[in-house]
Structure formats: structure tokens, C-alpha cells
Amino acid sequence: MENASCAGTHPYGASLAPPESARSAVSWAAVFAGAVIAAALSLALFAGGAGLGFLSVSPWAGEGASAPAVGAGLIGWTFFTQIVAYGIGGYVAGRLRTKWADAHSDEVYFRDTAHGFLVWALSAVVSAALLGSALATLASGAAKVGVSVAAGAGMAATAAAGAAASGGGMERSAGYLADTLLRFGQPDAAGDRNAARAEVARIVAVSVARGDMTQQDRDYVAKVVAAQAGLDPQAAQKRVDQAMQEARQAADEARQKAKEAADAARKTAAALALWGFASMLVGAFVASLCATWGGRRRDS
């Protein structure tokens, strides 16, 4: 009986294990408070950074910061925003959380770290939800800029090729087909020079888009050039070949420049995304670290 009565006081007895707390170890009120503060500070710092960015650039040549300087400033300000916003948010969460009187010091350290990480995660999710439409608008604007650049390169190639025809691609193709139906067997030197110029421009534009000029078109353009410029057939043919070579070269250069611009935009977007990812990791670390500092101050 004595042994039985002493079982409950045995130092290794199961009955002496501390009871499980019915209250969660997460102080959600402190987490929400820190997340709101971090989100508000991020928004304020973002607005301030945008203002400084607009002040640093200029539409005038030779004035304002260069593109690399603006990019470096954007990356630096992003890291600064993450450190300040999530550092303060994590610290506030650590100071406002409930004191765990029955927890070991290692457990307290883990819980404070988790609180800081929750502040970062909750603020990031809320910010992503609120800024989702803005990011979609920004991506749409970037896509429109890319399309405009590509279209400008195509127009430059067409202009370099001497394509002065009006209207879009379908109208130009229709005009080209109409020209082939109404061609004279022998162009008249006394004919309308502007009409001949427009017809040749349509033929050159379609040929550049197609990649080369057909032999039938080449012979006809040589006849028009010979009739309008007063050249012999051999000289006219040589002029046509030289013009087509220059047009193809201009089109190739325009396409190359468009590809280089697209590749540069891709690399820039990838770099910004990777730097943004790194800054978010820094924000998570700072929030967790500052939450432990705030928790330590709270317990002391």
C-alpha cells in the first residue's frame, strides 16, 4: 500500500508530467497586429520609393539617373523596405504576444521565431491579394509595350524596304493581288509616276514579308524601273537586285534588334524577380529575428 501511495510522487512517474495547455501557443492578435504594421509600412515605403524614383529620372538627354543606376536603386530600396517593415512588424508581434510562463527557453525562442515568420507570411499573402490587380495591370502594360516595340521594329523594316503602301497587312496583300491582275505587259514611261511608285512599294513590301521576290515580280519591277527611270533592262535589273538585298538586310537587322530587345527585357524581368525573391527571404529572416528580440524584451 505504501508503494502504491508513493507511486504518484515518484520523480519519473507519468502522473507528474505537466498538463497540456488548452490555449494555443500562437498569439494571433499579436501576429495580426505585426502583419498589419508591416503591410502599412511596406505600402508607405513603396510610395516613398516611387516618388524618389520619379525624381531621379528625366526625359531630357544627359539628365537624371541612368537605367543601371535606377535598377540598382530599385533593388536596394526593395531590401530596405523588407528590412524596415518586417523588422518593426516582427518586433511588435514579439512584444505583444502572450507570455508563456510554463515553456522552456528553447521553446519560447522557437515560438517567437514562428510568430515573426507568421507576421511575414500573413503580410505577404494580404499584400499579394491587395496588389494582385495592380500587378496584373503592370504585366498587361509591359506586354503592350513589348508588342509596341515589336510592331515598331516591323514598321521600321517595312519602311527601310520602301513599303509606302497604306493600310494593314490584309489591305496590302489585297492591293498586291490587284496589281498582279492589272499589270501591263509593257509599262509605259509616260504613266503616273506616283501610281508606279505605290505599286512597286506594295510588291517590295510583300516580297520582304515573304522573304524574297519572285522572278515574275522581279522582271516586272525591272520593267517599271526601266520605264520610269529611263534605264536599260540590265541596269534596271541590277538596281532591283540591289534594292531587294538592302531591303532584306534592313528587315534582318530589324528582326535582330527586336529579338535583342525581347531578350534584354526577359533578362531584366528575371533579374528583378530573383532579387525580389531574395528580398522576401531577407524580410522573413528579419521578421523572425526581430520577433525573438521583442519576445525577449516582453519576458524581461
Proportion in β-strands: under 5%
The succession of helices and strands, N to C, reads: HHHHHHHH
Task: Please give the count of helices.
Answer: 8
- Main sheet makeup: none
Which regions contain 5 or more consecutive residues with pLDDT less than 50?
1-15, 156-168
What does the average pLDDT come to? 77
What's the helical proportion of residues?
Answer: over 70%
How large, in whole angstroms, is the Cα Rg? 36 Å
Form type: rod-shaped
The CA-CA distance between the termini, in Å, is 47 Å
Number of strands: 0
Structural class: mainly alpha
Describe it.
The chain has helices at about 1-5, 30-55, 65-95, 105-160, 170-180, 195-210, 215-230, 235-300. The chain is mainly alpha-helical and about 300 residues long. α2 runs antiparallel to α3 (about 65-95) and α6 (about 195-210) packs antiparallel against α7. Residues about 1-15 and about 155-170 have low confidence and may be disordered.
Supply database-style keywords.
rod-shaped, mainly alpha, 8 helices
How would you summarize what this structure contains?
This protein has helices at 2-6, 28-56, 67-96, 105-160, 169-181, 193-210, 215-229, 233-299. The protein contains eight helices and no strands.
